[in-house]
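Weekly puzzle thread! Below is a chain. First person to post its structure in token form gets bragging rights.
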Amino acid sequence: MTVMDTTTTPTRTDICVSAPKAYPRPEGQDQYTISEVVAFTGLTAHTLRWYERIGLMSHVDRSHTGQRRFTNRDLDWLNFVGKLRLTGMPVAHMVRYAELLREGDHTFEERQELLEATRRDVRTRIEELQDTLAVLDHKIDFYAGARRAPERPSA
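Winning reply:
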């Protein structure tokens, strides 16, 4: 999947994951209503409007009647934001990342630093979860062994 940079150089891309996501409509015919984006992403319309209001999404095009029209590029961005949410990145940091992206290529270093800090946090959480999993495995093994042990005669 590719997330397009929102600067004035539309040919530049930031790669988020290895495989591109299939979309219902090809590029150029990708005009989705908010209800279609809700169905496709699982986000609520309220969340999509909030993302736009706080600056997490760049400007979403509107139809002549004022209805939002999302593109495949917007869907890519929403997918990336979903990944950032899973990392536990604070919304303020996500908004900052989006602002930096819109500012252009001169913000590469700061964007990279934000992502590296998030990666460090994720790795720490993974280590904590692995430790927790080891404790759970130990307890499960204990109980499984206790059930298999022969019963002791009562005194």
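Puzzle host: Confirmed. Bonus trivia for everyone else. The two ends are 68 Å apart (CA to CA).
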